[in-house]
Amino acid sequence: MAAYVIASYTVTDQDGFAPYTPAVVPTLRAHGAEVLVAGTGGDAREGDPGETTVVLRFPSKEAAQGWYDSPEYQAIVHLRTDNSRGTLVICDEFVRPS
Fold this sequence. Notes:
alpha+beta; four-stranded antiparallel beta sheet; 34% helix; 5 helices; Alpha-Beta Plaits; globular
């Protein structure tokens, strides 16, 4: 069953954040991620989301967790967390009850 990583954040230091995007792409590829959404300009209807929304699809929750916990990602995650504010969640794919 697929799993999704959903992030919503606002960059607080563009210069500090800039190296994150090119550095994260190889880590995503290595764990089978597919980028479904990545960008600004979403049309918020409720709540207070960040300026940027990212939705990643992984083959499984284990793959998503493996990506997040990997040494390669942990070496760069600070580029995002130190230079933005927001949320990141890992969730299972919805399975319609039969």
